[in-house]
Amino acid sequence: MFKFLRKHLTVPERPSRLSILNFAKPDAFPRIQTTSDSTLGGYSTAYLEPYRASADTNLVGHFHGNLNQTLPKGETKVKQSGWAMFKTKNRIQDPNAQFKPFYLFKSQANFWWDWSPFEVLHMRVMNLTPNRKFMVNIQTDTMSRTDLYQHRLFTNPLSSGSSDSNASPVWENIFINLNEFVLTNRRHRSSSISI
């Protein structure tokens, strides 16, 4: 009896690699939404589209658009402009969905993934825009919609080992330990909570 229970109650081994988004699969694109400062009256644009360089290459996500730092007219609260982003859509599409301190059922939560099985975020990126700053954000499921775990995304837009400014960008594998993300609220660091 105990052998049977031990066999069927043991915790399964965690996989060494879990995929969050794989743009090589077309079903990843409907799960993404883009936004920019245009939601606040700004003039930037953002698009994330499937792209294949040639018939024998994998499908990738091409994030592009125009950044415009012109402040929106008549919006005195907006102090900075010129940003764009893409993110996964909330599981609950209701715009009035609220973040709560706890949920009676997991189905009520407004999360997309449970990050507890993850230790490292691995991204494969190509930076075509030198001198731009990029951030990776993980939205929290808390009472505050402005809570974000953030980490700077450092990329090398030029091919490795080349000092030529006309060198072509290359694909880079970037690894970020999840415990290196910093909890922020409205871009201010909150040191009391860690991921």
UniProtKB/TrEMBL annotation:
Q: Domain named NADH:ubiquinone oxidoreductase intermediate-associated protein: which ranges?
A: 22-186
Q: Sorted alphabetically, which InterPro entries does this protein's record hold? A: NADH-UbQ_OxRdtase-assoc_prot30, NDUFAF1
Alphabetical list of Pfam families matching this protein: CIA30
GO biological process terms, semicolon-separated: mitochondrial electron transport, NADH to ubiquinone; NADH dehydrogenase complex assembly
Gene Ontology cellular component annotations, sorted alphabetically: mitochondrion
GO molecular function, one example? unfolded protein binding
Under PANTHER family, the record lists: COMPLEX I INTERMEDIATE-ASSOCIATED PROTEIN 30, COMPLEX I INTERMEDIATE-ASSOCIATED PROTEIN 30, MITOCHONDRIAL
Q: What is this protein called?
A: NADH:ubiquinone oxidoreductase intermediate-associated protein 30 domain-containing protein
Source species, please? Answer: Pichia membranifaciens NRRL Y-2026
> Highest lineage ranks of the organism?
Eukaryota, Fungi, Dikarya, Ascomycota, Saccharomycotina
